[in-house]
Amino acid sequence: MYVIKLIVPLVLITLSTFVINNVYAGDKRLKVPDFVTCDRNQLTSWHGVASQYQRDNGHLAITINTSYGTKESLELEFDSKDILATNFRINGLPFNENNWAEIENESGVLKDSIKVIVWVCETPLVKPIIDWKLPKR
Q1: pTM to 2 decimals?
Q2: How many CA atoms lie less than 13 Å away from 76 in the CB half-sphere?
């Protein structure tokens, strides 16, 4: 009888530890890349597919259908394409003039089903960063 009283709590502790570990094993947090300068406590990210995109005359609007089932939108004002490009990355690498053709069919028109991670800081001084996730070449 004494052995059963000891074994039952041990089994319960083992099972509860197993359940707790499995709940957190599915947590797929994104590793924050070095190019994101925002304090981690003020940072959020949206990972998904760009569903709407408009770029013209100093204005960019993008909507992302996230992998968590939400829709997130971002609007940026900019003075030139070059300045806007400083907020862009391609697979984590700096964005350059040649990359426009990789994400747009024509000026201001995004290609279909492009994956993206948008890093947004609560601090307005830190501009959002859009990291376009293209298939490996």
Answers
A1: 0.77
A2: 24
